[in-house]
């Protein structure tokens, strides 16, 4: 079949439909807004970007979002590695099947209800403090820590699955060879397994990072802090150009992230 | 199999550049078409069979929409909006017939040309709506009514009796930096730019030299004072709430002990035997500064596809029985004076001060802040400034 | 892999901790579906079955559920077609900009949902003048679902020797016959796996949906979102969530069966792992 025929559909859809929409958003970020009605006035100007640069609160919010997204990603890597490793290389066949189902199942339960469940857990009189109280400890309550915990929770399956698939691809003979040559498990893990599974980790991190960066519902439910998504969401009605301008921040960050990820070979592992 | 690297980046840029040009052209052509058919209806005809509404959670429930559908043949499709901003946004899509707009949305909808005036002669039940809800600045523009009052409520000061003693009689327990510090992390404030008005109202009482008349009409100096006050309050706020369920859970779980609330949450919590209290009768039911509040209005879109059904709805929702049902369900004072005969709780109207004009005189209803604040000067902060300032308050 | 006893125990502990982290919040969610009070307090004051009939009778929830199924089915179908086409092109042909395709396909899911949502809704309403509806939701969902199909299929295509297709062509089959009788049967399991993931993504999506859905429609996540903020509806929402989890066991089980059938290699590999694991001294 001709390449052109094959590509016409998907490329047409993505370029005209998707990149086209992004272009509309970008153009809107140069417009201005009529103060009262919130109607967009189509004058090209840089005022929105000027506002974002001049007002320190936007920098704080952008930085907070990116830092939390990074923390969530690291946490998910640390949580996912042992589970994925156990699934791929240690568990019996039945155990493996069960674990795959166990990891997939949470993906089917509503995201919102899970966040609400965390609200209950973290609340002042909630189960966490109920458990910790006898030990003289106190939970983190609502705030950045809560956002970090809940996001790490929500996106964990998106990290486990690519790492598991990446580990499955490593032939056991390679590991045996390393062991036969006298490497201890730790050494084998660091020198043989990690380099091979690293692209898969990067692949998973694309999801955890971008999903954290774009979420505005979780921060609203378990903290008082604003994230990039909240500012975009809050301004859509009244000041679409400003919202669009702020949306450019995650777009640039993610495009940079993807370019690096591709260089690291992550695209084969998604 | 080795793949030689063709120039992918070059290709991508070419595509994007081409697209950008294409979109610029498209955007230039597709300018918005303003259809300003803002004539009011002269007669209500047969229903169109459908009705698309935007409403606050709890305003459109089966108990009173089912009978409406049976009587009129208008099937009600309701979209629940979480904030006034969302309501404005949804109305702009032109897909809805009407909206239950609060005062901080009505002027924006009017200015944006999204709503049409209402011919109240076609709404028989309008006659007996409480007089102090008619012809208000948030529902009447250019001397024409732009909606039907639905119900109203005040933002109460609520506290947990076990934790907050003595019982406060002023908002200073939340807003005075020193007093509020005693409840650091336990204060619950409303999460919306309009909350700046609460600080404005507080300053009007405590710093008369600022010269604040109306907490929604603030000039530079007054506005900055209000915003600064809220930034100080931020240090002590435990939670900004935007929906009732969230705040109820917070007070139940002692994440919050004092805050601004709606009657609904207060009665839900006391109904659950939680140790909550709000300003008692001895304080005129409101803190000494007064309170902000809301009065919601059903407005009709000026591009409504189902105007007859919308008129039937506006009449239905202020009919005594339906208005009583919605008021009790949501927890607000009904707009219909005759609704008080239909509430299941005989004391309902008393509890919510439905007919208590003295009470409502001390309530500053939400309205949209505009630059032109009445005196011919346009030196007031407009809603856009409020939104941006609110972002900086929350940080 | 040969692990020392201590490492095995540590690994097991880490896995147990990870699973606890995943399942404790789900357990709480299930518990509150039986909460006798409609306020979220801990511990629940009592347990009741009352919310189940309420949830099943709730026509809003039922309609929203079927709307979600419908949207997910259509979006998944579009994603299957577009994803397969793109992967066939990339796996079997060389052309200018080939490397860019995987980037392009990945972009919609890698960019935050709010960006995709706002961009699409603006384009529909402001530029194209299309009213928001289920159609626009499907377009949004299909856009970010293409990538999961694409990746599953392209991984399979890489493993699949091109010589099979060449042989088919040499034997006189036209490209369509080769595709229908040689390529497609080999892609089947990859397609189903990709489709299931796409379906799950679409089914629980809320952010893009919020921005692209029209006046009179509700998908299940939108219904849940609305009802979380509706007075007195919390336990019903929890019940609906529990029912969805229970129903989701069907597709997950199906996927599991499928991967098991996926050929003996995985099974024998599993077998050797088992042998290795038990051989630990």
Detailed description of the structure:
Helices cover 74% and strands 1% of the residues of chain A. Chain A is built from twelve helices and two strands. Chain A has a two-stranded antiparallel ribbon with strand order 1-2. The model of chain A has no long low-confidence stretch (mean pLDDT 88). Chain B has 395 residues and is of the alpha/beta class. Chain B has two domains: 50-151 and 296-348, Periplasmic binding protein-like II (D-Maltodextrin-Binding Protein, domain 2); 154-293 and 370-394, Periplasmic binding protein-like II (D-Maltodextrin-Binding Protein, domain 2). Chain B has 15 helices and 15 strands. In chain B, strand 5 and strand 6 form a beta hairpin. In chain B, 54% of the residues are buried. Chain C starts with a helix and ends with a helix. In chain C, 78% of the residues lie in helices and 0% in strands. Chain C has a domain at 58-232: MetI-like fold (Orthogonal Bundle). At the A-C interface, helix 1, helix 3, helix 4, helix 5 and helix 7 of A face helix 1, helix 3, helix 4, helix 5 and helix 6 of C.
Q: The biggest beta sheet of chain C, please?
A: none
What is the largest interface, and how many residues per chain? A-C, 94 and 101 residues
Span between termini of chain A: 26 Å
Outline the low-pLDDT stretches of chain A: none
The second-level CATH architecture of the domain at 58-232 in chain C is: Orthogonal Bundle
Reconstruct the topology from this structure:
The complex is a heterotrimer of chains A (270), B (395) and C (281).
Chain A (H helix, E strand, L loop, with lengths): L2 H26 L3 E2 L6 E2 L5 H8 L1 H35 L2 H12 L6 H12 L4 H6 L11 H25 L3 H9 L4 H30 L2 H6 L5 H8 L4 H24 L7
Antiparallel strand pairs in A: 1-2
Chain B lengths: L7 H22 L20 E6 L6 H11 L2 E6 L3 H9 L5 E4 L1 H9 L3 E2 L23 E2 L2 E2 L2 E7 L1 E5 L11 H4 L1 H5 L5 E4 L5 H11 L13 H15 L2 E5 L2 H9 L5 E4 L1 H9 L4 E3 L12 E11 L5 H11 L2 H11 L2 E2 L13 H4 L5 H5 L1 E3 L17 H12 L1
Parallel strand pairs in B: 1-2, 1-3, 9-10, 9-11, 13-15
Antiparallel strand pairs in B: 3-13, 4-13, 5-6, 7-13, 7-14, 8-11, 8-12
Chain C lengths: L4 H28 L18 H7 L1 H34 L5 H13 L2 H16 L5 H26 L2 H9 L4 H29 L3 H6 L7 H9 L5 H28 L2 H15 L3
Helix pairs in contact in C: 2-11, 3-6, 3-8, 3-10, 4-6, 6-8, 7-8, 8-11
């Amino acid at each position: 079949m001709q390449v052109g025929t094959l590509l016409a559909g998907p490329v047409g859809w993505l370029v005209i439909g998707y990149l086209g929409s992004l272009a509309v958003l970008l153009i809107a970020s140069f417009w201005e807004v009529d103060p009262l009605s919130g109607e967009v006035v189509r004058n090209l100007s840089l005022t929105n970007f000027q506002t974002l640069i001049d007002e320190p609160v936007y920098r704080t919010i952008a930085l907070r979002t990116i830092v939390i997204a990074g923390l969530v990603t690291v946490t998910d890597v640390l949580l996912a590695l042992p589970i994925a490793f156990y699934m791929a290389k240690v568990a019996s066949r039945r155990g493996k099947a069960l674990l795959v189902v166990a990891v997939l199942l949470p993906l089917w339960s509503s995201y919102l209800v899970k966040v609400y469940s965390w609200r209950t857990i973290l609340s002042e009189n909630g189960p966490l403090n109920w458990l910790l109280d006898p030990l003289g400890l106190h939970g983190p309550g609502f705030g950045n820590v809560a956002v970090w915990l809940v996001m790490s929770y929500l996106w964990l399956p998106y990290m486990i699955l690519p790492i598991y698939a990446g580990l499955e691809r490593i032939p056991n003979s390679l590991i045996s060879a390393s062991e036969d040559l006298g490497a201890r498990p730790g050494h084998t893990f660091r020198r043989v397994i990690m380099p091979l599974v690293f692209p898969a980790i990067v692949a998973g991190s694309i999801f955890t990072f971008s999903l954290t960066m774009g979420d505005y519902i979780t921060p609203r439910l378990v903290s008082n802090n604003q994230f990039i998504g909240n500012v975009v969401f809050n301004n859509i009605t009244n000041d679409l150009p400003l919202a669009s301008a702020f949306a450019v921040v995650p777009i640039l960050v993610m495009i940079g992230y993807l370019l690096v990820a591709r260089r690291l070979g992550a695209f084969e592992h998604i | 199999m080795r793949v030689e690297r063709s120039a992918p980046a070059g290709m991508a840029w070419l595509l994007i550049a081409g697209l950008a040009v294409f979109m610029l052209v498209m955007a230039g052509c597709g300018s918005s078409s303003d259809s300003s058919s803002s004539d009011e209806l002269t007669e209500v005809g047969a229903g169109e069979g459908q009705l698309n509404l935007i409403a606050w959670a709890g305003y459109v429930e089966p108990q009173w929409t089912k009978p409406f559908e049976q009587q009129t043949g208008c099937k009600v499709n309701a979209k629940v909006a979480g904030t006034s901003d969302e309501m404005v946004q949804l109305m702009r899509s032109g897909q809805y017939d009407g909206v239950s707009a609060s005062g901080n949305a009505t002027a924006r909808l009017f200015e944006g040309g999204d709503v049409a005036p209402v011919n109240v002669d076609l709404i028989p039940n309008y006659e007996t709506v409480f007089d102090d809800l008619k012809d208000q600045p948030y529902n009447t523009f250019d001397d024409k009514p732009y909606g039907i009052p639905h119900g109203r409520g005040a933002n109460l000061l609520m506290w947990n009796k076990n934790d907050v003693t003595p019982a406060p009689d002023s908002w200073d327990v939340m807003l005075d930096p020193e007093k509020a510090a005693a409840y650091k992390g336990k204060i619950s404030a409303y999460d919306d730019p309009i909350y700046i008005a609460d600080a404005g109202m507080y300053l009007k009482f405590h710093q008369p030299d600022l010269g604040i008349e109306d907490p929604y009409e603030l000039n530079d100096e007054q506005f900055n004072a209000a915003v600064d006050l809220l930034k100080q309050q931020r240090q002590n706020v435990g939670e900004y709430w935007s929906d009732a369920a969230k705040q109820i859970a917070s007070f139940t779980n002692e994440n919050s002990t004092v805050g601004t609330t709606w009657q609904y949450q207060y009665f839900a919590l006391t109904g659950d035997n939680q140790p909550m209290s709000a300003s008692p009768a001895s304080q005129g039911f409101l803190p000494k500064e007064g309170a902000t509040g809301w009065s919601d209005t059903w407005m009709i879109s000026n591009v409504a596809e189902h105007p007859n059904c919308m008129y039937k709805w506006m009449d239905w929702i202020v009919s005594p029985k339906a208005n009583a049902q919605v008021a009790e369900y949501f927890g607000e004072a009904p707009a219909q004076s005759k609704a008080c005969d239909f509430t299941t709780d005989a004391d309902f109207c008393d509890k919510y001060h439905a007919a208590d004009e003295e009470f409502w005189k001390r309530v500053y209803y939400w309205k949209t802040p505009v630059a032109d604040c009445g005196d011919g000067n346009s030196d007031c902060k407009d809603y856009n400034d409020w939104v941006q300032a609110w972002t900086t308050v929350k940080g | 892999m040969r692990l020392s006893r201590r490492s095995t125990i540590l690994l097991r502990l880490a896995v147990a901790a990870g699973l606890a982290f995943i399942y404790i919040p789900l357990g709480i969610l299930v518990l509150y579906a039986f909460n006798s009070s409609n306020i979220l307090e801990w511990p629940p004051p009592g347990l009741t079955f009352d919310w189940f009939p309420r949830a099943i009778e709730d026509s809003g929830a039922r309609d929203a559920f079927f709307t979600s199924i419908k949207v997910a089915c259509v979006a998944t179908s579009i994603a299957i077609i577009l994803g397969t086409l793109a992967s066939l092109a990339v796996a079997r042909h060389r052309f200018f900009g080939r490397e860019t395709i995987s980037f392009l396909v990945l972009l919609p899911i890698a960019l935050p949902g709010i960006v995709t949502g706002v961009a699409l809704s603006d384009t529909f309403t402001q530029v194209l003048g299309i009213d928001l509806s289920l159609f626009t939701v499907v377009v949004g969902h299909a856009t970010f679902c293409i990538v999961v199909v694409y990746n599953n299929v392209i991984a399979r295509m890489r493993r699949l020797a091109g010589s099979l297709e060449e042989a088919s062509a040499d034997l006189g089959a036209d490209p369509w016959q080769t595709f229908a009788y040689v390529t497609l049967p080999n892609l089947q399991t990859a397609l189903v796996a990709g489709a299931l993931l796409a379906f799950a993504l679409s089914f629980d999506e809320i952010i893009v949906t919020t921005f692209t859905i029209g006046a009179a429609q509700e998908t299940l996540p939108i219904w849940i979102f609305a009802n979380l903020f509706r007075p007195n509806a919390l336990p019903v929402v929890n019940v609906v969530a529990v029912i969805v989890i229970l129903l989701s066991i069907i597709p997950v089980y199906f996927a599991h069966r499928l991967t098991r059938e996926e050929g003996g290699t995985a099974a024998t590999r599993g077998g050797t792992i088992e042998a290795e694991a038990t051989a630990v001294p």
